Amino acid sequence: MTDPIRADVAIVGAGVIGCLIARELSERRPDLDIVVVDRGEIGGGASRYSAGLDIPRGNSERVRRMAAYGQRYFADIRWAIPMTVIAHRTRDSDVRERYLEGVGPMTTPAVHRGLFDIPPGHIAWHGNCAYTDVHAFAQQVAREVRSRVRFHEGIEVLAVEPDPDGIQLRLGTGRSVRAALVVVAPGPWTGSPPWPSFIRSFGIRVKRVVALHLDRVPDEGDPAVIFDTEDAFLLPMHRRRHWLLSYTSDEWDVSPDRPGTGLTAADLAAGHRILERYAPHLIASTVSGRVFCDAYSPDREPLVRSSPADPRVVFAGAANGSGYRLGPAIAAETADLLEALSGADVERERTA
After folding, report:
1. How far apart are CA 207 and CA 253, in angstroms?
2. Among 21, 14, 346, which Cα is nearest to 180's?
3. Backbone angles phi, psi at 78, to 5 degrees
4. Are 318 and 296 in contact (CB under 8 A)?
5. What SS3 class is residue 34?
6. 145: helix, coil or strand?
7. Nearest in space to 235 (alpha carbons), one of 25, 52, 45, 97
8. Closest Cα to residue 160, out of 325, 312, 320?
9. What confidence tens digit (pLDDT) does each residue in 308-331 have?
10. Are 242 and 217 a contacting pair, CB within 8 Å?
11. In this structure, are residues 304 and 310 in contact, taking their beta carbons and an 8 Å threshold?
12. Closest by alpha carbon to 141, among 15, 242, 38?
């Protein structure tokens, strides 16, 4: 029988969160032996479909801190663009509380050269945001850390077997990985074997994610427009030369292996209802789009927790569609937790 692959830390999932955790750990502890395992390719899951919009906001103090951390982390590598936030004027204080510093009031009656309208009773705030090709970014991070992190792509984890000496991951290849600590960063594959027995109590659900592509080339200087009331946004994707409309879907408990066969008439209608309110002349441009899914936590905050089944198995994710922008802070919190677990193990050995 082939000897197991040995590591100090095994990370399951090579999306943007898994790659950022690998980078964070390898920078803090260059001596660590780290292995990353993914059933697909690096950045090939939810990260491939992400719009990569980094909106400077958070619905809680923790998420605002995480968003600010990400802003600093990505300061030199993002495509910075203007941002306009539209909401009802009665939500002025709410917008100012949730969005980070730098978002000021706008008093103009139209958002940007007449491209979008502000409905009666609404006002707009102006600031800055950024976006990134998340799929390419995850692959870039992996390239940077390959000299100190091993990546095993296209390999599924079939079983997790804890014992007193570590955690053994049984792989689809017939081999196994034995590690002292395991980080589970599966993106929307939270329901795949063997994860439910370790994370079921976290209450994670997987939701369908839909975005429409608008066949219209954005002009230089066009802003991302956040429709705050609808939790939707329009993003000028300059590198792809089209616009993207992302909006909230309410289709839950979908499988990432079968998130849908493409856009439906209902998807188009939902997007058109938003455009009808703010930019009806853009409806005719909605000719294509993207469909996938992502993992959501009950309180809509990212989860970084040890499993109740075994504290050496740490879950990191359920970022509620914000894995990229909150990824650096998720990685830092994960590294902090792993350091605490490693210290606890050392203390137990000293007192044994």
Report:
1. 6
2. 346
3. -105, 165
4. yes
5. strand
6. helix
7. 52
8. 312
9. 999 999 999 999 999 999 999 999
10. yes
11. no
12. 15
d(CA 46, CA 187): 7
Q: Give phi and psi for 276, each to the nearest 5.
A: -60, -30
Distances (CA, A) of 232 to 13, 97, 248: 28, 18, 6
Q: What is the DSSP letter of 10?
A: E
Whether residue 259 has pLDDT greater than 70: no
Other CB atoms within 10 Å distance of the CB of residue 151: 21
| Nearest residue to 307 (alpha-carbon basis) of 204, 205, 200 | 200
| Cβ atoms of 146 and 119 closer than 8 Å | no
d(CA 124, CA 92): 9
Peptide bond into 194 cis (omega under 30): yes
Contact indicator for 291, 208 with CB cutoff of 8 Å: yes
Measuring CA to CA, how many Å separate 191 from each of 121, 147, 162, 202, 204? 43, 32, 19, 12, 9
Q: Which residues pair with 300 in a beta bridge?
A: none
280-285: which pairs have CB atoms within 8 A and are 24 or more residues apart?
Answer: 282/214, 282/216, 282/243, 285/214, 285/215, 285/216, 285/243
Look-up of token digits 């970022």: 319
In angstroms, what CA-CA distances link 88 with 98, 111, 168? 15, 14, 53
Per-residue pLDDT tens over the stretch 115-144: 788 888 898 888 889 999 999 999 999 999
Please name every residue paired with 246 in a beta bridge, in sequence order, or none if there are none. Answer: 211, 233
Helices (H), 146-262: 196-199
The tokens describing 49, both together, are 């479909």
- What's the pLDDT tens digit per position in 243-253? 999 999 999 99
Question: What is the SS3 assignment for 196?
Answer: helix
9: number of Cβ within 10 Å: 25
